Amino acid sequence: MSRKADAPVTPWARQVARAIATLQAQTGISHAELVRHCGFSHTYYYKRLRGDEAFDLDDVANLAAPLGVTLVELMELAALMPEKNEDDRGAVVKVDGAELGRRLRYLEDTSVYELDIPELDRQLQTEGFSFNQNDWTELTTGTATSSVYEAILKRIAQAFHVPDEYLTDTGRPAWADRIEAEIDFDRAVQDAHVQRIAARSLGEVSAAELRALAAAIRG
């Protein structure tokens, strides 16, 4: 059987994707349940939901019922979605995929803050994106130069309370090392249940000195 040709990603196709994302948020149906019902692979669904490729009419027809609407109602909702050019989603930054993955794993393992992926997804839907566990895994296991929407990285940085540039600029290793030393210090302080001292309040302390302080707190 020949492979079905991909539908073109037009402004209308992006409006349809936003309507689908809106209905999914309203119904509360999970990504896993939705793709299982429609017989999609996760990758197939996610690429179309975030606008990399387009849903075709058969896809939309399959999605309508589990989203609690008819095909006509889904199309009517899509017509009400504001038109956006692809550029409206903001800048795309090129990053070292392996280094970005390392930094994200460091945040996940060490930060005193946790990433709430469903909440991140809700925030990003207002900017024309969707985000899920598969997207997170893809970012954390990158191995090559990657192009990533800056808005996504900024939202992740905000969730972990680190400067945006820690994720959007994968160069500057000495500066990144200082940020990571602060994160390690804050983790040590929390784990030891001592009075909260923010690493940034310590002033001009080197990354090595911060790590030494963290080690001393841990005993």
Summarize the helices and strands and which ones pair or pack.
Layout (H helix, E strand, L loop, with lengths): L10 H17 L3 H8 L3 H8 L7 H8 L6 H10 L11 E5 H14 L6 H9 L7 H8 L4 E5 H11 L4 H4 L4 H19 L15 H12 L1
Antiparallel strand pairs: 1-2
Helix pairs in contact: 1-5, 11-12
Description:
It is elongated and about 65 Å long. The model has no long low-confidence stretch (mean pLDDT 83). The chain has a two-stranded antiparallel sheet. It is 58% helix and 5% strand. The chain has helices spanning 11-27, 31-38, 42-49, 57-64, 71-80, 97-110, 117-125, 133-140, 150-160, 165-168, 173-191, 207-218, and strands at 92-96, 145-149. The termini are far apart. The protein is built from twelve helices and two strands. With 219 residues, the chain is mostly helical.
List key phrases describing it.
219 residues, mainly alpha, two-stranded antiparallel sheet, elongated
Summarize this structure briefly.
The termini are far apart.
- Rg over alpha carbons: 21 Å
Number of strands: 2
Low-confidence stretches: none
Helix content: 55-70%
The largest sheet is: 2 strands, antiparallel
SSE succession: HHHHHEHHHEHHHH
The proportion of strand residues reads under 5%
Terminal CA distance: 65 Å
In spatial order, strands of the major sheet run 1-2
Number of helices: 12
SS-based class: mainly alpha
Report the mean per-residue pLDDT as an integer.
83
Q: Overall 3D geometry?
A: elongated
